[in-house]
UniProtKB/TrEMBL annotation:
This is Transcriptional regulator, TetR family. The lineage of its organism: Bacteria, Bacillati, Actinomycetota, Actinomycetes, Pseudonocardiales. GO terms for molecular function: DNA-binding transcription factor activity; transcription cis-regulatory region binding. Pfam families: TetR_N. Residues 7-67 form the HTH tetR-type domain. InterPro entries: Homeodomain-like_sf, HTH-type_TetR-like_transc_reg, HTH_TetR. Residues 30-49 bind DNA. The keyword Chaperone does not apply. Keywords: DNA-binding, Transcription, Transcription regulation.
């Protein structure tokens, strides 16, 4: 069972590690690259998390916490454009604040089957956007497109250091990708 992260340092470690795991997968991500990404030695990183496995589990758990937060917020809303917009707003805000964790969550779309628990995360995304992927292929493709655009654009916004200007543009792009018309 992964432990809850301490505020600050552990959150930054988890986000950086999640980004590397999302980009390279568990097997191809070394403990050294994880330590380098957060400016620690391997021993320093292991002081915070006892192993690469523990770090991976903690990152997945935090990604799931973000997912559950969004799902809890949108579940009371009926399926449709309002629910989609709210889900996109919440996911975008999380992606702007913790891009690595959201990238790890979205890895369920780009590397299916890598982690047995990914299927659960994929189901949560389907529930968030109220979709049956086997019977609504066009909508499923639009959702993947919207979330992919979100992932790329939030990473760029973080690189540019201008989240405030980028946020409404990211939301408009994602909303358009879902095929909704602006009101």
């Amino acid at each position: 069972m992964p432990r809850q992260p301490r505020t600050g340092v552990d959150e930054n470690i988890l986000d950086a590690a999640a980004a590397l795991f999302a980009r390279h997968g568990f097997e191809q991500t070394s403990l050294k690259s994880l330590a380098d990404a957060v400016g620690l030695s391997k021993a320093g990183l292991l002081h915070h998390f006892p192993s690469k496995d523990a770090l991976f589990e903690a990152a997945w758990e935090q990604s799931r916490v973000l997912t559950m937060h969004v799902l809890d917020q949108v579940s009371p809303l009926p399926a449709g454009p309002e629910r989609d917009r709210r889900a996109l707003e919440l996911l975008t805000d999380h992606a702007l604040d913790r891009p690595g964790l959201v990238s790890l969550l979205f890895r369920t779309m780009t590397a299916p089957g890598e982690d047995p628990q990914q299927a659960q995360d994929e189901l949560l995304l389907n529930e968030m956007f109220v979709i049956d992927p086997e019977n609504e292929l066009p909508r499923a493709i639009r959702i993947v497109g919207a979330l992919s655009a979100m992932a790329v654009l939030t990473l760029l916004a973080n690189q540019e250091g201008d989240k405030t200007t980028w946020r409404p543009l990211i939301l408009a792009t994602c909303y358009d990708a879902l095929g909704h018309q602006e009101a």
